[in-house]
Prior knowledge:
Layout: H1 2-8, H2 11-22, H3 36-56, E1 59-64, H4 70-89, H5 94-112, H6 117-138, E2 160-161, E3 165-166, H7 167-181, H8 183-188, E4 190-194
Antiparallel strand pairs: 1-4, 2-3
Helix pairs in contact: 1-3, 2-3, 3-6, 3-7, 4-5, 5-7, 6-7
Amino acid sequence: MFIMSLLILPLGPISEYWYFKDYWQPELLYPWIINIEDLIFAWSIGGIGAVAYEIFFNKTLSKRRNQTKNSVLMWFFVLTICAFIVGKLLGINSIFASSFAFILCGLLILISRKNLWKDILFSGILTALIMFLIYAFFLPQIPTNYWHNWLIYGTKYDFLLFGTVPLTELIWGFSWGMAVGALYEFWQGYRLKNRK
């Protein structure tokens, strides 16, 4: 969890370059070049997505197979980034372009390691569920109408579950969980087994 959170940490501020343009413009505590909120979110979602399946289904890492070569892992990242860029060039909103790219990453892992299918699928479901619960609790506590900070407010993508949680966030959370849920096991060659 710590390793994946650390690796994902820089992606929060980097990704906002795109998200701030067409997806959302949140009210920030300290609007610096690197926002504390982006770092907190990236750190948290990196760890949550990486271990949600293992925690909820009481799994632990088992003996290694052959470790994935770094060149293979690099190609996964390159293809994921390319999918995102192609989506943006086609005029697709960054939330959907990144979701598509993450799903592609999860499917590439699945093709290489079919035994990780439960990890990939349930990491997606659980990450989306955890995001839903957090949003459903915290968004109503925010005094301003926070949903108006989403740039898709008032568009055809303006859909809130239970009047509070943006559906686009859950789509993103599911795709993120698919991408990162089995990434460490794939990268390091681990299998998963039931914890005693």
